[in-house]
Specification:
- The chain is an alpha/beta fold.
- The chain has two domains: about 110 residues, Aspartate Aminotransferase, domain 1, CATH 3.90.1150.10; about 250 residues, Type I PLP-dependent aspartate aminotransferase-like (Major domain) (Aspartate Aminotransferase, domain 2, 3-Layer(aba) Sandwich), CATH 3.40.640.
- The chain contains twelve helices and 13 strands.
- The chain is globular, with a radius of gyration of 21 Å.
- It starts with a strand and ends with a helix.
- The relative contact order is 0.17.
Protein backbone atom coordinates (compact mmCIF):
# COMPACT_ATOMS: atom_id res chain seq x y z
CA UNK A 1 0.00 0.00 0.00
CA UNK A 2 1.40 3.40 -0.96
CA UNK A 3 2.20 5.82 1.87
CA UNK A 4 -0.15 8.69 2.60
CA UNK A 5 2.17 11.67 2.82
CA UNK A 6 0.71 14.43 5.00
CA UNK A 7 3.90 16.16 6.11
CA UNK A 8 4.21 18.86 3.45
CA UNK A 9 4.96 21.54 6.06
CA UNK A 10 8.29 19.74 6.53
CA UNK A 11 9.04 19.18 2.83
CA UNK A 12 6.97 18.55 -0.27
CA UNK A 13 6.75 14.99 -1.60
CA UNK A 14 6.61 13.50 -4.14
CA UNK A 15 8.43 16.01 -6.30
CA UNK A 16 6.84 16.77 -9.69
CA UNK A 17 8.33 14.89 -12.63
CA UNK A 18 9.40 18.18 -14.23
CA UNK A 19 11.46 18.98 -11.13
CA UNK A 20 13.19 15.61 -11.17
CA UNK A 21 13.98 15.90 -14.87
CA UNK A 22 15.35 19.43 -14.49
CA UNK A 23 17.80 18.30 -11.81
CA UNK A 24 18.90 15.32 -13.90
CA UNK A 25 19.49 17.51 -16.95
CA UNK A 26 21.55 19.94 -14.88
CA UNK A 27 23.79 17.11 -13.71
CA UNK A 28 24.16 15.71 -17.21
CA UNK A 29 24.47 18.83 -19.36
CA UNK A 30 25.29 21.82 -17.14
CA UNK A 31 28.37 20.34 -15.54
CA UNK A 32 30.42 23.52 -15.25
CA UNK A 33 30.73 25.82 -12.25
CA UNK A 34 28.70 28.98 -12.90
CA UNK A 35 30.78 32.15 -12.94
CA UNK A 36 34.03 30.18 -12.83
CA UNK A 37 34.97 29.93 -16.49
CA UNK A 38 34.21 30.84 -20.09
CA UNK A 39 34.09 27.32 -21.48
CA UNK A 40 30.74 25.99 -22.79
CA UNK A 41 29.79 23.94 -19.71
CA UNK A 42 30.45 26.87 -17.36
CA UNK A 43 28.45 29.18 -19.62
CA UNK A 44 25.54 26.72 -19.71
CA UNK A 45 25.62 26.55 -15.92
CA UNK A 46 25.68 30.35 -15.66
CA UNK A 47 22.68 30.66 -17.99
CA UNK A 48 20.70 28.17 -15.90
CA UNK A 49 21.63 29.97 -12.71
CA UNK A 50 20.51 33.33 -14.05
CA UNK A 51 17.29 31.88 -15.47
CA UNK A 52 16.31 30.71 -11.98
CA UNK A 53 17.38 33.99 -10.39
CA UNK A 54 15.27 35.90 -12.90
CA UNK A 55 12.25 33.60 -12.50
CA UNK A 56 12.37 33.75 -8.72
CA UNK A 57 12.75 37.53 -8.69
CA UNK A 58 9.74 37.95 -10.94
CA UNK A 59 7.70 35.42 -8.93
CA UNK A 60 8.32 37.27 -5.67
CA UNK A 61 8.20 40.81 -7.08
CA UNK A 62 11.84 41.78 -6.90
CA UNK A 63 14.93 42.06 -9.13
CA UNK A 64 17.49 39.38 -10.07
CA UNK A 65 20.52 41.15 -8.61
CA UNK A 66 18.81 41.27 -5.20
CA UNK A 67 17.83 37.58 -5.34
CA UNK A 68 20.46 35.58 -3.47
CA UNK A 69 20.78 31.79 -3.43
CA UNK A 70 21.36 30.27 0.01
CA UNK A 71 21.38 26.71 1.42
CA UNK A 72 17.82 27.19 2.71
CA UNK A 73 15.40 29.44 4.59
CA UNK A 74 17.18 28.87 7.92
CA UNK A 75 20.42 30.12 6.40
CA UNK A 76 18.55 33.06 4.82
CA UNK A 77 17.09 34.06 8.19
CA UNK A 78 20.50 33.84 9.87
CA UNK A 79 22.03 35.92 7.09
CA UNK A 80 19.30 38.54 7.36
CA UNK A 81 19.25 38.80 11.16
CA UNK A 82 23.01 38.73 11.67
CA UNK A 83 23.70 40.77 8.59
CA UNK A 84 21.34 43.61 9.51
CA UNK A 85 21.82 43.68 13.30
CA UNK A 86 24.08 46.34 14.80
CA UNK A 87 25.62 46.50 18.29
CA UNK A 88 23.08 47.77 20.80
CA UNK A 89 20.08 47.32 18.54
CA UNK A 90 16.66 45.96 19.47
CA UNK A 91 14.87 43.21 17.52
CA UNK A 92 11.20 42.23 17.63
CA UNK A 93 9.93 38.79 16.62
CA UNK A 94 6.39 37.40 16.57
CA UNK A 95 4.93 34.81 18.92
CA UNK A 96 4.62 32.17 16.19
CA UNK A 97 8.32 32.26 15.28
CA UNK A 98 10.09 29.04 14.31
CA UNK A 99 13.49 28.25 15.84
CA UNK A 100 15.05 29.26 12.52
CA UNK A 101 14.12 32.82 13.48
CA UNK A 102 14.11 32.61 17.27
CA UNK A 103 17.53 31.02 17.78
CA UNK A 104 19.59 33.48 15.69
CA UNK A 105 18.03 36.33 17.65
CA UNK A 106 18.66 34.66 21.01
CA UNK A 107 22.26 33.97 19.97
CA UNK A 108 22.78 37.68 19.32
CA UNK A 109 21.35 38.39 22.77
CA UNK A 110 23.75 35.94 24.41
CA UNK A 111 26.63 37.56 22.54
CA UNK A 112 25.60 40.95 23.90
CA UNK A 113 24.98 42.38 20.43
CA UNK A 114 21.25 43.07 20.74
CA UNK A 115 18.17 42.85 22.89
CA UNK A 116 14.97 41.18 21.74
CA UNK A 117 11.27 41.07 22.55
CA UNK A 118 8.32 39.01 21.33
CA UNK A 119 5.20 40.71 20.04
CA UNK A 120 1.69 39.31 19.62
CA UNK A 121 1.10 36.77 16.86
CA UNK A 122 -2.61 37.53 16.67
CA UNK A 123 -4.22 37.14 13.26
CA UNK A 124 -6.17 40.28 14.18
CA UNK A 125 -4.20 43.13 12.64
CA UNK A 126 -5.36 45.77 15.11
CA UNK A 127 -4.36 43.71 18.13
CA UNK A 128 -1.01 42.73 16.64
CA UNK A 129 -0.07 46.25 15.56
CA UNK A 130 -1.08 47.74 18.91
CA UNK A 131 1.19 45.29 20.72
CA UNK A 132 3.98 45.89 18.22
CA UNK A 133 3.68 49.65 18.72
CA UNK A 134 3.89 49.24 22.50
CA UNK A 135 7.19 47.36 22.22
CA UNK A 136 9.03 49.66 19.82
CA UNK A 137 12.08 51.39 21.33
CA UNK A 138 14.33 54.14 19.97
CA UNK A 139 17.01 51.48 19.34
CA UNK A 140 14.65 49.07 17.53
CA UNK A 141 16.14 48.22 14.15
CA UNK A 142 14.54 44.96 12.95
CA UNK A 143 11.01 43.57 13.05
CA UNK A 144 10.71 39.95 11.92
CA UNK A 145 7.49 38.08 11.22
CA UNK A 146 6.30 34.58 10.41
CA UNK A 147 4.06 34.82 7.35
CA UNK A 148 2.27 31.52 8.06
CA UNK A 149 2.69 29.29 11.09
CA UNK A 150 4.20 25.84 10.68
CA UNK A 151 1.89 24.24 13.28
CA UNK A 152 -1.46 25.62 12.17
CA UNK A 153 -2.88 27.71 9.34
CA UNK A 154 -2.54 31.09 11.02
CA UNK A 155 -1.43 33.82 8.62
CA UNK A 156 -0.16 37.09 10.03
CA UNK A 157 -1.15 40.46 8.50
CA UNK A 158 2.31 40.94 7.05
CA UNK A 159 1.39 43.68 4.57
CA UNK A 160 0.31 45.83 7.51
CA UNK A 161 3.43 44.93 9.49
CA UNK A 162 5.54 45.88 6.47
CA UNK A 163 3.77 49.24 6.20
CA UNK A 164 4.28 49.81 9.93
CA UNK A 165 8.02 49.22 9.49
CA UNK A 166 8.28 51.45 6.42
CA UNK A 167 6.70 54.35 8.28
CA UNK A 168 9.28 54.03 11.07
CA UNK A 169 12.35 53.26 9.00
CA UNK A 170 12.70 49.72 10.39
CA UNK A 171 13.99 46.66 8.59
CA UNK A 172 11.26 44.08 8.00
CA UNK A 173 12.38 40.43 7.78
CA UNK A 174 9.76 37.95 6.57
CA UNK A 175 9.95 34.20 7.19
CA UNK A 176 8.04 32.73 4.24
CA UNK A 177 8.96 29.09 4.91
CA UNK A 178 5.32 27.96 4.87
CA UNK A 179 3.74 30.60 2.65
CA UNK A 180 6.06 30.73 -0.37
CA UNK A 181 4.33 29.07 -3.31
CA UNK A 182 0.94 29.21 -1.58
CA UNK A 183 0.35 32.89 -0.80
CA UNK A 184 1.34 35.58 -3.33
CA UNK A 185 4.15 37.79 -2.01
CA UNK A 186 5.31 41.14 -3.41
CA UNK A 187 8.73 41.80 -1.92
CA UNK A 188 9.25 45.27 -3.36
CA UNK A 189 5.57 46.17 -3.38
CA UNK A 190 5.27 45.50 0.35
CA UNK A 191 8.67 46.97 1.19
CA UNK A 192 10.23 43.80 2.63
CA UNK A 193 13.87 44.24 3.64
CA UNK A 194 14.67 40.51 3.61
CA UNK A 195 12.38 37.78 2.30
CA UNK A 196 13.52 34.31 3.41
CA UNK A 197 12.33 31.38 1.33
CA UNK A 198 13.00 27.61 1.23
CA UNK A 199 13.19 25.79 -2.08
CA UNK A 200 11.96 22.39 -0.90
CA UNK A 201 8.52 23.14 0.55
CA UNK A 202 5.79 25.02 -1.29
CA UNK A 203 8.05 25.64 -4.29
CA UNK A 204 8.43 21.86 -4.82
CA UNK A 205 12.21 22.00 -5.23
CA UNK A 206 14.99 20.05 -3.55
CA UNK A 207 16.54 20.48 -0.10
CA UNK A 208 19.79 22.42 -0.13
CA UNK A 209 18.72 25.65 -1.79
CA UNK A 210 16.75 28.65 -0.62
CA UNK A 211 16.41 32.34 -1.39
CA UNK A 212 17.20 35.59 0.37
CA UNK A 213 15.45 38.36 -1.52
CA UNK A 214 16.59 41.77 -0.39
CA UNK A 215 14.90 45.14 -0.53
CA UNK A 216 16.28 48.09 -2.42
CA UNK A 217 19.40 49.54 -0.78
CA UNK A 218 19.46 46.65 1.73
CA UNK A 219 22.90 45.03 1.92
CA UNK A 220 23.53 42.76 4.93
CA UNK A 221 27.02 41.97 6.09
CA UNK A 222 28.22 38.61 4.70
CA UNK A 223 27.77 35.61 6.96
CA UNK A 224 30.26 33.40 5.08
CA UNK A 225 33.36 34.44 3.13
CA UNK A 226 35.07 32.80 0.17
CA UNK A 227 35.41 32.81 -3.59
CA UNK A 228 32.65 34.57 -5.52
CA UNK A 229 33.94 34.18 -9.08
CA UNK A 230 34.74 37.89 -9.43
CA UNK A 231 37.29 40.33 -7.91
CA UNK A 232 39.50 37.43 -6.89
CA UNK A 233 42.49 39.66 -6.01
CA UNK A 234 40.55 41.60 -3.36
CA UNK A 235 40.62 40.56 0.31
CA UNK A 236 36.96 41.29 1.05
CA UNK A 237 33.85 39.90 -0.57
CA UNK A 238 32.74 41.85 -3.67
CA UNK A 239 30.62 44.90 -2.82
CA UNK A 240 27.96 44.05 -5.42
CA UNK A 241 24.97 41.76 -5.01
CA UNK A 242 24.32 38.91 -5.32
CA UNK A 243 28.00 37.86 -5.39
CA UNK A 244 28.69 39.50 -2.02
CA UNK A 245 26.43 36.93 -0.33
CA UNK A 246 27.10 33.87 -2.50
CA UNK A 247 30.55 32.47 -1.62
CA UNK A 248 31.59 29.07 -2.91
CA UNK A 249 29.97 26.71 -5.38
CA UNK A 250 26.21 26.91 -5.69
CA UNK A 251 24.06 23.72 -5.83
CA UNK A 252 23.18 23.89 -9.51
CA UNK A 253 20.99 20.72 -9.71
CA UNK A 254 18.90 22.00 -6.79
CA UNK A 255 18.67 25.43 -8.45
CA UNK A 256 17.51 23.78 -11.69
CA UNK A 257 14.87 21.90 -9.68
CA UNK A 258 13.78 25.16 -8.02
CA UNK A 259 13.39 26.81 -11.42
CA UNK A 260 11.16 23.96 -12.59
CA UNK A 261 9.20 24.07 -9.35
CA UNK A 262 8.45 27.79 -9.64
CA UNK A 263 7.44 27.42 -13.28
CA UNK A 264 5.12 24.56 -12.35
CA UNK A 265 3.42 26.64 -9.67
CA UNK A 266 2.97 29.55 -12.06
CA UNK A 267 1.37 27.22 -14.59
CA UNK A 268 -1.20 26.03 -12.03
CA UNK A 269 -1.60 29.27 -10.04
CA UNK A 270 -0.99 29.88 -6.35
CA UNK A 271 -4.63 30.71 -5.69
CA UNK A 272 -5.76 27.44 -7.22
CA UNK A 273 -3.20 25.49 -5.18
CA UNK A 274 -4.24 27.19 -1.94
CA UNK A 275 -7.93 26.57 -2.69
CA UNK A 276 -7.33 22.86 -3.23
CA UNK A 277 -5.35 22.59 0.01
CA UNK A 278 -8.10 24.37 1.94
CA UNK A 279 -10.68 22.00 0.50
CA UNK A 280 -8.74 18.99 1.76
CA UNK A 281 -8.15 20.56 5.19
CA UNK A 282 -11.84 21.40 5.53
CA UNK A 283 -12.80 17.85 4.58
CA UNK A 284 -10.38 16.52 7.18
CA UNK A 285 -11.57 18.87 9.95
CA UNK A 286 -15.20 18.06 9.25
CA UNK A 287 -14.48 14.35 9.45
CA UNK A 288 -12.44 14.78 12.60
CA UNK A 289 -15.40 16.50 14.25
CA UNK A 290 -17.27 13.20 14.16
CA UNK A 291 -14.52 11.26 15.94
CA UNK A 292 -14.71 11.37 19.76
CA UNK A 293 -11.62 12.42 21.68
CA UNK A 294 -10.00 14.67 19.08
CA UNK A 295 -9.79 18.43 18.77
CA UNK A 296 -7.88 20.93 16.68
CA UNK A 297 -5.46 23.61 17.86
CA UNK A 298 -5.19 26.97 16.11
CA UNK A 299 -6.51 27.90 12.70
CA UNK A 300 -7.45 25.16 10.23
CA UNK A 301 -8.40 27.12 7.11
CA UNK A 302 -5.13 26.57 5.24
CA UNK A 303 -3.00 23.53 4.51
CA UNK A 304 -1.78 22.87 8.08
CA UNK A 305 -3.98 21.34 10.79
CA UNK A 306 -2.78 20.50 14.30
CA UNK A 307 -4.77 17.97 16.30
CA UNK A 308 -4.78 16.62 19.87
CA UNK A 309 -6.34 13.60 21.57
CA UNK A 310 -7.86 13.78 25.03
CA UNK A 311 -5.78 10.84 26.34
CA UNK A 312 -3.04 9.79 23.93
CA UNK A 313 0.03 11.92 23.35
CA UNK A 314 0.91 13.25 19.89
CA UNK A 315 3.82 10.80 19.66
CA UNK A 316 1.48 7.87 20.39
CA UNK A 317 -0.94 9.02 17.70
CA UNK A 318 1.95 9.46 15.26
CA UNK A 319 3.20 5.92 15.92
CA UNK A 320 -0.25 4.48 15.22
CA UNK A 321 -0.59 6.42 11.98
CA UNK A 322 2.90 5.37 10.87
CA UNK A 323 1.92 1.71 11.24
CA UNK A 324 -0.66 2.32 8.52
CA UNK A 325 1.77 4.18 6.27
CA UNK A 326 0.40 7.62 7.12
CA UNK A 327 3.16 10.23 7.39
CA UNK A 328 2.58 13.17 9.77
CA UNK A 329 4.76 15.16 12.16
CA UNK A 330 4.37 15.04 15.94
CA UNK A 331 5.81 17.04 18.82
CA UNK A 332 6.93 20.65 18.88
CA UNK A 333 7.84 21.18 15.20
CA UNK A 334 10.82 23.38 16.19
CA UNK A 335 8.41 26.14 17.24
CA UNK A 336 8.22 26.52 21.04
CA UNK A 337 6.96 30.10 20.84
CA UNK A 338 4.06 29.03 18.64
CA UNK A 339 3.07 26.25 21.03
CA UNK A 340 3.20 28.70 23.91
CA UNK A 341 0.94 31.04 21.93
CA UNK A 342 -1.54 28.23 21.22
CA UNK A 343 -1.33 26.66 24.69
CA UNK A 344 -0.04 23.33 23.36
CA UNK A 345 3.42 23.44 24.93
CA UNK A 346 2.87 20.36 27.16
CA UNK A 347 3.28 17.70 24.45
CA UNK A 348 3.02 19.59 21.19
CA UNK A 349 0.57 18.42 18.55
CA UNK A 350 0.01 16.02 15.69
CA UNK A 351 0.55 18.12 12.59
CA UNK A 352 -1.31 17.10 9.43
CA UNK A 353 -0.23 19.18 6.43
CA UNK A 354 -1.71 18.87 2.96
CA UNK A 355 -0.66 19.82 -0.53
CA UNK A 356 -2.55 19.95 -3.80
CA UNK A 357 -0.99 16.59 -4.64
CA UNK A 358 -3.10 14.91 -1.96
CA UNK A 359 -6.52 13.44 -2.60
CA UNK A 360 -9.84 12.83 -0.87
CA UNK A 361 -8.78 9.21 -0.48
CA UNK A 362 -5.80 10.36 1.59
CA UNK A 363 -8.17 12.22 3.89
CA UNK A 364 -10.41 9.17 4.11
CA UNK A 365 -7.48 6.92 5.05
CA UNK A 366 -6.25 9.07 7.93
CA UNK A 367 -9.79 9.58 9.24
CA UNK A 368 -10.42 5.83 9.17
CA UNK A 369 -7.33 5.18 11.29
CA UNK A 370 -8.06 8.00 13.71
CA UNK A 371 -11.61 6.69 14.04
CA UNK A 372 -10.30 3.40 15.42
CA UNK A 373 -8.30 5.06 18.22
CA UNK A 374 -9.88 4.78 21.65
Amino acid sequence: MRPVYLDHAATSWPKPESVLLAAEEAVRYAGGNPGRGTHPLAETASELLYACREEAADFFGSEPERTVFTPGATYSLNMAIRGLAEPGCHILIDGMAHNALLRPVLALEREGICRADVYSASADGEELLADLESKIRPETKIVAATHQSNICSRVLPVERIAAFCRERGLHFVLDAAQSAGRIPISADGWGISALCVPGHKGLNGFPGVGLLILGKDVKPKPLVYGGAGIRSLEEDMPPCLPERLEPGTLPLPAIAALLAGIRGIRAVGQERIALRERELSLLFVRGLGGIPGFRTAGETDGNVVSILHREKTPSEIGEILAQYGICVRTGYHCAPLAHRTLGTEKDGTVRVSFSASNSEKDVERILNVLGEID
